[in-house]
Amino acid sequence: MVQFDPNVPFPYDPDQDAAEKRDIRKKYRALEKRTGEQLRPQDIRAAELVEQVEEADELFQKVKNPTEATLDSTVLRNVSSISAQKARAMKLGSAAFDIDDFVSKLAIFMGGRHELADDASELDDIEVGRRALAKSRRVPVMGFMLGPLSVEQKKRAQEIKEEDIQRSENETTKNVIKIREILEESGSVNLFRFVVNPNDFAQSVENIFYLSFLIRDGLCALEIDDHGEPIIFLCEAPSAQDRADGVTCHQIVMEFDMATWKRAIEVFEITESMIPQRPAAKTRLGGKWYG
Questions:
Q1: Any bridge partners for residue 288, and if so which?
Q2: 198 with 271: CB under 8 angstroms?
Q3: What percent of the chain has pLDDT over 90?
Q4: Are 192 and 154 in contact (CB under 8 A)?
Q5: What are the beta bridge partners of residue 224?
Q6: What is the three-class DSSP state of 31?
């Protein structure tokens, strides 16, 4: 086969002479016809296959476009297919090579029986290895197994029961009510002064989460005062008549990361949290507690 230098780029030439391309295609199609898939293996000799490969190699030296390269791959595919069929039909002496017969005799040689069953005796692999080494010059090397020696069985994920969900909902409801009571006592207050816990970023996020329920239900309002500060305060939830008259509630998506948390503490000089520090929550999922 033709050897290519990896440092030399593929000779692609879109401006190749049209007459030369037609001649290359004509010769490739003639080769393809001689090695077609309908050809029987017994109709062609191995030497002829070699000649066709060499002829394809010579043509490939002139290939400079994908179309001709595709024809070349088709020819080689056909030659490979015929060669494989001829190999399978190869005969040793007067009898064809029978794979099943070979396996059966190999099993007998290794100390087994004609028909291998689940309870068959162990086969002597070492003896076969010795015989194979005598016919091979390849040095035996160490290999690796495909996969680990032992696989740790994955534990099934804990199922969340209905009582776990109910317990979590009750905890959320309790914290929302507590935040409403604190806001009722404080009156109008800066949003950040109310929700930010200077000692705990996670609880600051939780405070915003619980406050969002009050805003969703129309029990808390948020507005920007004359100084540009976000102010929150309790209000009456709009009734059905109010909504019919055109009163609407609006919600916003607020970004609150650790940088914003630190900046709020610095700008508004927050030293203590208006919402008391809650103990670390522990959630029971299945039979285990998580905190």
A1: 285
A2: yes
A3: 11
A4: no
A5: 230
A6: helix
| pLDDT tens per residue, range 14-54 | 777 888 888 888 888 888 887 776 667 777 787 888 888 88
21-30, 76-85, 131-140, 185-194: segment of lowest average pLDDT: 131-140
| Residues recorded for the chain | 291
Residue showing tokens 């035996």 = 140
pLDDT band at 157 (very low <50, low <70, confident <90, very high): low
Residue 220 structure tokens: 């808390």
- Kindly give the pairing relationship between strand 230-234 and strand 189-190: antiparallel
Q: Quick check: helix, strand or coil at residue 153?
A: coil
Q: How far apart are CA 239 and CA 223, in angstroms?
A: 20
pLDDT at 291 over 70: no
Spatial contact of 27 and 75, defined as CB atoms under 8 Å apart:
no
Q: Is-contact 194 201, C-beta < 8 A?
A: no
Residues 143-167: b if buried by 16+ CB within 10 A, e if exposed:
eeeeeeeeeeeeeeeeeeeeeeeee
Q: What is the pLDDT of residues 125-152, one digit of tens each?
A: 777 777 777 777 777 677 666 665 555 6
Structure letter (DSSP) for residue 279: P
83 pairs with which residues across the strands?
none
Please name the residue that has the structure tokens 């791959």: 73
